[in-house]
Amino acid sequence: MNAEKVPDIIIGRLPVYLRALQRLSERGIQTTSSQELGEIVGISAAQIRKDISQFGEFGKQGTGYAIPFLIERLRDIMNVNKVWDVVIVGMGDMGHALARYNGFSERGFRVSMVFDNDPQKIGQKVGELEIYDIASMTEKLKQNKIRIAMLTVPATSAQEMADQLIKAGVKAILNYAPISLNVPSGVRVQYIDPVTHLQRMTYYLD
Amino acid sequence: MNAEKVPDIIIGRLPVYLRALQRLSERGIQTTSSQELGEIVGISAAQIRKDISQFGEFGKQGTGYAIPFLIERLRDIMNVNKVWDVVIVGMGDMGHALARYNGFSERGFRVSMVFDNDPQKIGQKVGELEIYDIASMTEKLKQNKIRIAMLTVPATSAQEMADQLIKAGVKAILNYAPISLNVPSGVRVQYIDPVTHLQRMTYYLD
DNA sequence: TAGATTGTTAATCGATTAACAATC
DNA sequence: TAGATTGTTAATCGATTAACAATC
User: Fold this and answer.
1) B2 pLDDT more than 70
2) What digits encode the pLDDT tens for the residues A7-44?
3) Does B9 contact strand C, using a CB cutoff of 7 Å?
4) Do A205 and B147 touch, CB atoms closer than 8 A?
5) Scanning every residue of chain A, which has its alpha carbon at the shortest distance from the alpha carbon of B9?
6) Is A12 domain-assigned?
7) B residues 104-143 near A, CB within 8 Å?
8) According to the model, what pLDDT value does residue A3 have?
9) How many domains, chain B?
């Protein structure tokens, strides 16, 4: 699709554009401009045009972008024009909250399995899902060709769990444990740690 | 403290350094080098030295950085050498999970109040905390001089709640709602949306 | 047609890396 | 002393912005 390699920093902005476009679409709006979209997401119009133009000519001079069309293109580009099965490892409070979150399905993801190693939890239900034993995880992930996992275990076992996930074929980890993971190239990690996010802001507070 | 304005991208890496240093410290390690720290967090040694040197000369040639000392300096710089009171707005699953998370206190934050507008929830307890009515939020935030909030309400009411928080004096918002917030300059926002994080990775999956 | 807005180029700005003297 | 590693400079690399011809 794209001859040149697109910088990761641009890839990181696409989901934000998509999210904003979907909100506009929900409100019945059919068209937008780089100017308008930029004001919504807090990014310059020039940058938005440049980002989008990496992938094709999706706009029209004079009128801007057709929202449903641009949404489809972005979903294609990001590979979310299908539903990805994801698993959750660690059924503490955070794992439970994610398992019950209903914002995944409408945006391309489905929580298909959840795991824990606590005998008290194994076999319990979280919504529709039964909590499986981590001991059976490698096998189940391979069987179901799972590529994406969310990691919500304590920091002390996060690296070990990540290693297991990777051995089982996982290529993308959303890590909620407050620790930097060591992973081989070819495996992607995104970090969600509320404390680092908060600390990034307190620098600016007196 | 620092004459030159430090780029925000550097500020964003400091919490990651701090987190790694604290893990080393827990393991009883007293000293580290830019090389070693870089391998842990996945950042080049040169960049780590450059980032740290923005704020002073905290290392020693030949031996590296004294971990407890560097931790103290970073905590000073980031303003987390004291405990910040934070509030949570929206007591759904995510709000509950955050309210019960015990990783805040040891890293400079304390959840001091939680709010919801559901009569069923108001007055209930979450751990030690009573859920307060959002109607009383402005008043309570002003009384307690709250500067930081975590926003875990549905996307549809997130902007409205953010506006209220800002009116009440909040200067930093950690936004869990899947929507870009519009805020005046002087107010900081950090975004946590598992779906955008996942979408950022699916681009690279086949 | 007149007005609006794209896609793209060139210029600017900023961030990262490589290299090394200083020094513990 | 010899080896290790910092702090910093200069070079490189990459990202953002400004500007505008093209065109709807």
Assistant:
1) no
2) 999 999 999 999 999 999 999 999 999 999 999 999 99
3) yes
4) yes
5) A200
6) yes
7) 104, 107-109
8) 44
9) 2
The shortest CB-CB distance from A101 to any of B93, B101, B150 is to B93
Chain B nearest CA to A107, separation (Å):
7
Q: Under 8 Å CB-to-CB from A90, ≥6 apart: which residues?
A: A115, A116, A151, A152, A153, A154, A161, A176
Nearest CA in chain B to A74: B203
Residue A114 and residue A13 share a domain? no
Instruction: Name the residue range of residue B96's domain.
Output: 84-197
Clarify whether residues A131 and A151 are in a common domain.
yes
Q: Does at least one atom of strand C sit less than 7 Å from the CB of A64?
A: yes
Please report residues of B whose CB lies closer than 8 A to that of A201: 148, 171-172, 174, 188, 190
In a domain, residue B140? The reply is yes
What count of other Cβ atoms lies within 10 Å of the Cβ of residue A61? Answer: 6
Relative to beta strand B148-151, strand B129-133 is: unpaired
Question: What's the confidence (pLDDT) of residue B193?
Answer: 98
Query: Under the phi-then-psi rule, with left for phi > 0, alpha for psi from -120 to 50, and beta for the rest, what region is A164?
Result: alpha
If asked whether residues B49 and B100 sit together in one domain, one would say no
Among B31, B60, B78, which residue terminates a domain?
Answer: B78
> Is pTM, for the whole model, over 0.85?
yes
**Residues β-bridged to residue A125:** A130
